[in-house]
Structures are given as structure tokens and as C-alpha cells.
Amino acid sequence: MKPVLVIFTGGTIASRARDGVISPDESTKSMLIDLYRKTSGDNDTCFEEKSPINILSENMTFSGWNSIIKTLCSVDSKVYSGIIITHGSDTLSYTSALVGMLFRHTEIPIILIASNKPLDERGSNGLFNFTSAVRLIKENRFTGVFTVYEEVCLPTRLLPADTALDRFSYYGGEPIGVSEYRLKKPRKQFISPDITLKNEVLVINPYPHFNYTSLSLANRPAAVLHTLYHSGTACAEPPDGDSFSVLAFAKRCAALDIPLYFCGTKGGKAEIYSSAEKMSKQQVKTIDRISDVAAYIKLLIAYNQTQVSPSRYIYSNIYFEML
Questions:
Q1: pLDDT in tens, 1-33
Q2: 201-314: which CATH architecture?
């Protein structure tokens, strides 16, 4: 069996707690592999290591993502049987979607994992997730990108964990949600993954009495993603004036030539609410049947590459992100 490449990026799985504070610790890299060998009895699998960054994942910015992208682009897939990326849980869903979309064409499994607690604490699932990732690679059952956190899931449908139980959920309700045939089917490279993220996408999440005038748009984002309530709606008929109207905000974006996308519309649903009907008459683009996380990552990639038009990238099903 060819070696497994482990790319360490930090997070809880690479941290220790001291005096009640959890922070990254370099020694945990060898601890993870040592624990795996001790508990599995597997002394045959060869592991190679890279560590482009070592941060808590809540501190992830473009520089961290660019380092991960460059590291993956530098890997010769013919040398390895698979790649495991250890990551923090806070932004695991975002990095998972990024890697899943950029490396949809991978010829070997790329698996992202995380941990709920440091490895040396009771109840940590980090070793379980790592062991599951190694097993998935050794089975040689699928190629593609996956996320393993207590179960195997599609990286482009993973949603952020809740703050009460620290549990992840999945867009559409299922961790995989596609047939084994579709997973095994070879995928061509859509765009070269060797891109550099620099153009920002602004995300707006609606809530009652959201005042759109608090958004200056002075930094001129490449695009704006506006999420919607579950009914595919936002405030379009405010009793308190245009400051709270998504329609007035859409006109501001149009005047500045900033593309505005609604995520969460109901597509071809026969009946819609009056607010959604008013929104549909605006010159606003919509992205249907996709999670907010995947939509954000998709827009980031679309507006940070020049290989295809942004619209072609956005409206193609890149890696099972669209239901």
C-alpha cells in the first residue's frame, strides 16, 4: 500500500488544554499517529506529514485556505493512497466544501477530519475519526473528497455544528444522500484548483428589524450572498421604511454593480409568499437547493478564478452540493 499523506492544519485535534485554555500543540501530530498504531495494531501503513498551517479553525482566513490549496496542488497523487486533512471543527464545513469543490476530480480519497476534544481528553472522537479515515482509504472503495466526523459525509453538504451539543447536520438531512454509483463515477476537472483567494464575498443573514443601511458596501465585495428564511423569504414589505427592505438593498447593489444572490429560494414551487413574489421581480440572481455554506464557498471560487464565467461555475453541480 502506498503511503497516506496527513496534512495537519491545527484545530482541537492538534491541541492541548493548559489551565483551562485549549491551543495548538506541535507534539499532538506524532500523538495522533502513535495512538492510531497502538489501538489499531497497524504498523504497516506508512504516514507522511505536512503542516502548512497550525491554527484554531475559527481563525481561518484566506491566507490559511490558500496555504491548504497550494499544499494539495503540490501533491503527486500517484505517490499516495490517500490524503487526510486534520482540521478544527468550527469551520470544518467551510473548508470541507472548499476542498470538495476544488478537488472533485481527485484520483485518490481526500478526507477531512476533526475532533470534539483534544486527543488526550476522555471522550475525544479525534482518534476514531482518524481511524475511520484510514480505513476508508485502505478499503479503496471510493475516490473523491469526504468528511469524517463520527460518520462519513459529503463535504459539500456538511452544515456547521450546533453550539449546544456540538453535533453536525447535513443539508437535505442525509450525510451522503447520493448513490454509490454516482460516487464511483469518474469526475473530470472542472477548473484548475490552483487558485488564490483574494476577492471577498459578503454574506447577509436576515433577522427581524435588520437595518440594511448599516451595510456600507464601501469595500466593494465581488458579490453579496443573501440567505433567506426557510420559506424563501426576506423582509420585502417593511412597515418601518426602506431601511429594512431587501428590495431597496437590491437596488443599492445594482447601482454599485455588485452581483447579489439569494440563497434559499424555493425554485419552481407553485405557491410563494407575497414577499417572495416581490423579490422575484428584482434583478437578483438566485441559487436554489444548496446550503448557505456551499453557496458562500461556490461564490468565493467563482469570483476568484477566470477559467470559466462565474455563472457557469455557480449554476453547475460541482460536487453533489445541489439537491
A1: 999 999 999 999 999 999 999 999 988 878 999
A2: 3-Layer(aba) Sandwich (3.40)
